Every structure is written in structure tokens, then in C-alpha cells.
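Async update (no meeting this week)

Hi team, since we skipped the sync, here's where things stand on the single-chain job. The sequence we agreed to prioritize is pasted below, unchanged from the tracker. I ran it this morning and attached the output directly underneath so nobody has to dig for it. Comments welcome in thread, and please keep replies under the output.
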Amino acid sequence: MSTIALAAVLTSVPGRGAPAPSPAPPSAPAGAPYTSAKTCATCHRLIHQYWSESAHARSATSPAYLEGLEAAVAAASDKQAVRVNCVWCHAPTVLVTGDHGLEQPVTREGVSCDFCHTVKDVDLARAGRPFEVGPGNVKRGPLQYAKSKFHETEYSPLHKSSALLCAACHEYRNPLGVAVLSTYTEWRQTPYAMRGVTCQECHMPVVPGTSVPAALGPSGHVINLHRIVGGSNPSKLSVGLDLKIDSVTRTSGAADVQVLVTSSRVGHAAPGGFANRALVLAVGVESASGELLNRRERVYHRTLQDAAGQELVTVADLMLKAAREGEDTRIQSGESRAERFTVPIPDGAKAIVARLEYRDLSDARTGPRTILVTEERRDLTLR
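Output:
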């Protein structure tokens, strides 16, 4: 039912212009500390729709995560400790429920509405449990004067303008002391942090929409985008990174190509996240048939190694075995990287092509996944 249709139903009391009492959304089962996201959706339909399309909604159930979890547990000496350590970020309601076996439906909702909006505080010094949780009828959020007919509301600076809410899960040192995830630390070293531009401003931007149907009361005309798009999405990467062919100088049978890659709107190192992701700058020539020939590459990534110096790839190995950092060639926030290539030019070549690609090795089931971020061409047929 659309918002307009719902408003019509709620105001259709014969002889009166005042709305009829709104039916209360279904409540959580007796004794359950957290409410299902489906319950939130009865009023917050658009927000729920966006959240349901997010990685947060799939964080406890995605095949890649479940396979990585079982691999990590199987390789660990203290299997329960590893399971607990992984699950509380991917299904954080377990901090209260203890449902580490993912048996309850609300646990399988992953990073859910009711968990995030009942967090009181975050303290990264509390290793293994940085959240101060407060499940119950008080829902916390970024709006100072929000009111609800069905639950209490409380303004939360943590939700409004603090990167700590995200840092609790996106900053992690493994038992060997290696920073497996360091996105929060990287952000703190950028001008974004100095200006107070937080994770939420980039990854949950304000978009047109209403938080609740008009029939339930004033709700504004914008909402935060709860799809929470991250760096593995081509649209997010193409907005944050710029690619430019600076010059192409033809020589006998080849071209000297100078390319500039700039991290213009990324608030941390690129790529972020686990050390099994990379940005690849590829430069080559397009043949008459459209193929990219004589491809040359630069790879921007961070590597982690085990105690023997072997580079680690899977999430399970990174979490358990990373003993030291290898190279880090990622592009820092605000940095421009100038690269130079010599590319042979075959007969009939149509163009010099520069591509920026995102390469993800995190899913062992499907193998490497490559996404085109952006591309620039320089025509060779023009004289």
C-alpha cells in the first residue's frame, strides 16, 4: 500500500476529519530483547527497503561470510572464542541474546535496525565488546525532535555525528596484534576527520524521503540512505576516485602514456576494508576488434603476512594468522598518484585506454571478482 493510500485509510472516519487511531505495529515476542526489522518496516517502510538492500542486512547470512566463519572456526584451537569474536560484529544482537548459533530470526537479520538504534555508546578500549547496548523501548537516532506513537525516542550524538558507531566493527586487531581492519584509524588521519566529516555523511547520505507515512505525523522530507553503500560498489568508487590520461606521446611503434589517479573524495585509504581487495590501474591499447592489448598494470593494495612471510588472502586467514604487515601501496585520502607506462602500438590500434578496476578476492567460492570503476580513452586515429 502506498503512503497516500495508507493516509486515506487512516483518515476515513465517517463525519470526522481527524485520523482514526493507528494500529500498533506487532511487538517483539515476550522476553525478546530485540524487535525484528519487519516490525520497524510497518512504519519506516522506505528506510527498511534501503536497509534490506544493504550488506548489513546480509551480514549474518551471506554465503561468503558463513563459509569464512566455518573455515575460521575449523582452523582455530579455541573454536568457540573465534565463533563469538566473528558473530558479534556480523550479528551484534548476540551481545545480549548469546545466540551465537544464529538460531533466532532476529539474529539472522545481521546488523539490524533495533540493534543500531538502541546502542548507547561505543568505547573501543573495551576489547571484544565496544558497544554499550540498551535494548528496549527507547530508540536512539540523529533527529533531535523525533516523536513516535509506538516507542520512545532519544536524540543521539553518536548516531548523528560520530564515526565511533561504525568503528566498533570496522576497526579490528587480531590476537597477534595486527590491524586487520583499520578504516577508522585511517579516517582519523585525514582532513575529513579534522573537518568533522564522518562515515555517516559519505556512506549514509541524506536523500529525499519520509521516515514514516504522513498519516503517522510529521516526518520531514529527507532520510539517511540506509543502503550504506561501501567501497565494493562501482558507483561509490567512481564518485570517490578520479582517473585522467595526462599525456600520450607517440614514438616508433609505442606510446609513452602518463596517467593520474586521484583519491579526491575518499575518507580513508583506497581500497579500504580487508587486505584481499585491490585497485588496479590498467593501461593498454584498443585493437580494431575492441580488445585491450598490451595491458600494463599498477596494483594498489595492502598485504598481510603470516609468521613465515606468506601473503594471506582469505578472511579466515587474515583474522587468525596475520602476524605482520607487508607492503601498502594504497592511495591515501587526497593523494594523486602519477603513473607512466610504455605501451606498444600495433597496426590498426584505435585508442589508448586507461581503466581503474576494483579486484576482490574475499569470496573463495567464486574466485577473484573484478569491477570496472572508471575508464578514459585517448583516440589514436585522430591526427
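Quick observations from my side:
DSSP finds 14 helices and 16 strands in the chain.
The CA atoms of residues 142 and 157 lie 7 Å apart.
Reply here if anything looks off.
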